[in-house]
Amino acid sequence: MAVSTIGSRTVGIIYPLLALTVISASPMQIGLVTFALTVPGLLFYMPAGLLADRVDPRSIMLFTEAGRAFAIATVLLAILLDDVTITHIIIAAFLEGGFGVTYSLAETALLARLIPRDSMNSRLVASESGVHFAVLAGRPLGGLLYHFGAPVALAVNALLFLCSTGFLSAISRRRRNHEPRATSFRQLMAGMRSLSYQRLLGEIRSGIQELRRHRFMKHAIFATTTTNLAINTVIIIFMAGSANLSPILVGIILSAGGFGGAIGSNLARFPWVQKRIKPGTTALVTQMWIWVFALMITTLTDPMYYGLATLVTGCTGSLMNVSIRMYELREVERSMLGRVVSVHRLASHAAVCVAAPLGGWLASVQTSGEATRFILAFTIAAAVCASVAMPRWRQLLTPAR
């Protein structure tokens, strides 16, 4: 699974570079390539969550990995034939984004089936650590591979997804089960054709209703959405004002969040840390106030303070991810897990998407310091609301389960 994450991160670097160097694309076209990589999250999280609940997750993951490898292979062939176009790259990037969303939700459903409850903590921590180390390796690897030429970068990336497909095939052969899910692509297509538009909406609605039964998940959505919006907006503000900085320094600062995530996921291995990130209101409120502290650091405006802030938020965000995933796998109805997780991830992804234009607009109408202080004020307001409202909801609402 880490192989797939590395491949996803490298291709996220390769496609924009490909548009820039091979096509000599305009800034608008490069923006469209990046948009094509991210917009499938807004379009497909909910349907992909339903798919993960109805279909064997290994089949979904095999299909998506093979699809990603095929999309990259078409671009590689077009380059070798000197016939690649910006439209082709945008379509391939869109497919990569859509397959990536679907893969991630199927992976969650598969983990819920494979991880025994008595070893859930250690397995989730290992999974989270693997993701962060893959993220750290993926982006530099994408740049390094592209240094040897676009064909080399694309060929290696396609090979990564093919290796992931091979690993999943091996798992599928070793672990056979008799759950009432579609286990072949023919059954998958038959099941999807049987869904009417009304029934599809009904299935998604049932997942939302299941989520509403879990107070912690509702609180977690509020906490992660507001904090993701805040830190990603601040990152855009920093990047907008980084023209006079060394590219190496900018890269180090932006990678600090990944290092923080790796630190946090490894801290979660310790029992005393696990006690403090136990799913609950206290953990969420504490996270939000830590992010307030981190954003206060960014108001000092020195570039290295931005790096320190992203390091802190990456660490606490990783710890919170472990807590949320632990709750999802233990408490959410297995038959609706994909749909419930899809709502949470859709909200977080939407916050990231909104952060880009919001950060750019704030940077254009205010100085970096003023724009950062505005986001700090927003984060403080959200933390105050959480501190006041979440304990009150805990007292007024009866346990959902």
What layout of secondary structure does this protein have?
Elements: H1 2-21, H2 27-38, H3 40-54, H4 57-80, H5 86-114, H6 120-147, H7 150-174, H8 185-193, H9 197-212, H10 215-240, H11 247-267, H12 271-276, H13 281-298, H14 303-331, H15 337-365, H16 368-396
Walk me through this protein's architecture.
The protein has 401 residues and is mostly helical. The protein has two domains: 1-195, Growth Hormone, Chain: A; 206-394, Growth Hormone, Chain: A (Up-down Bundle), CATH 1.20.1250.20. It contains 16 helices and no strands. It has helices spanning 2-21, 27-38, 40-54, 57-80, 86-114, 120-147, 150-174, 185-193, 197-212, 215-240, 247-267, 271-276, 281-298, 303-331, 337-365, 368-396. The protein starts with a helix and ends in a 5-residue tail after the last helix.
Characterize the largest beta sheet: strand count, sense, and whether it forms a barrel: none
Overall CATH architecture of the largest domain: Up-down Bundle
Please state roughly what percent of the residues sit in beta strands, choosing from under 5%, 5-15%, 15-25%, 25-35%, 35-45% or over 45%.
under 5%
Q: Could you say how many structural domains there are in total?
A: 2
Structural class: mainly alpha
Order of helices and strands: HHHHHHHHHHHHHHHH
Query: What name does the CATH topology of the largest domain carry?
Result: Growth Hormone, Chain: A
Say which CATH homologous superfamily of the largest domain is assigned.
Answer: MFS general substrate transporter like domains
Stretches where pLDDT is under 50 for at least 5 consecutive residues are 177-184, 393-401
CATH class of the largest domain: Mainly Alpha
* Number of helices in the DSSP assignment: 16
